Amino acid sequence: MTVEHGRIKGWNLPPEGRVLDGQGGTVAPALIELHAHLREPGQTEKEDLHSGLAAAAAGGYGTVVSMPNTSPVVDEPATVRALTEKALTLGTARLRPAAALTRGQRGEALAELAALKGAGAAMFTDDGRTNEDARVLRLGLEYAGSLGMVVSVHAEDASLRADGVMNEGPVSEALGLPGNPAAAEAARVARDLEILAGLHAQGRPARLHIQHLSTARALDLVRAAKARGLSVTCEVCPHHLTLTDEALRSFDAIYKVAPPLRTQADADHLLAGLLDGSVDCLATDHAPHTRAEKERDLLDAPSGIAYIELAFPLMWTRFGETLGLDRLLHLMTAAPARVMGWPEPSLDVGAPADLVVLDLETARTVNPAEFRSKAKFTPWAGETLRGWPLLTVVDGQVAYQRE
Ligand code: DOR
User: What pTM was estimated for this model as a whole?
Assistant: First the structure.
């Protein structure tokens, strides 16, 4: 492949300029991440733009949507601009910051959505918080929809979730830990879908994206809403497919995440949703915290699992046979682009030169000490995975190359 001015110039042209060796790997469009916590501004002891975007590039991602639950919250156009401009200087993955739907993510007054869009915000979300005020969410969906923008939601009913630190069920009961019931997610998804349906009935062009769906029941609700023709999409995270609440028997807060790890039946249902298309795309919810924070006990530790560097290898190793390479790549490239209304990534002549070269064969052991992310720990440490990126190119520039 030859690249010129950041675009694919041709496939069989004589090489000129800098020549990169793909080492026999499989070439695909660079992966797209719709959900990562990069922690800048203000929480850079956990992660920052450079470490987070370098980690993303090492994971094969060319584009990352960052979450706005930072300190301060990303609810000002100037912050969106500053993050975007800084990311451009880093030579890693491309950043598309999400902005808060409400001021300070407090769920009360809408942020200045039109100005945030003008500054380059990719979508609006109060992720990490749960949009308790239904009227505010409705207004946000209506206004964002009129701007052609997606609102993505962290769908958990806070009163039902209460102080639950893990999935509510036999395991939480056996451990004596406060549980977070599946109904907390399903009830919130049902509410949000009804709000969306009401807007559609009035001819409003609202677009709702449900983040990190974790329960079978909530997926059934989304499936039914799609059958009704609602403009709803959803993502599922690899950790909800590969881990269950059984992991909490270790009492290790590395497994604490919101929404929580559920049951094997939920994970199986989500996987079926990836196969039948009712789940739109994969997203990691890469949520780094410091080691000291995650070493606290389960009640006090913050929620979040960080693993953007190994999401593709994890999915390929565990589900490559079930999903097949084409479907898995679709779920991590074209599918997230479609959720956002972005042009579909391709390797055609003239397309942006955003690509990843994947080694689908060689097994390597996960060694968190090698992570670019500041969170140098992960539930999959020591596991043997295949599917590691060899090279990630963004706009024709090398964003990652395995040494
Ligand atoms: O586990 C989570 N961690 N879920 C979220 O929604 C927020 C995230 C974070 O910011 O750490």
Answer: 0.97
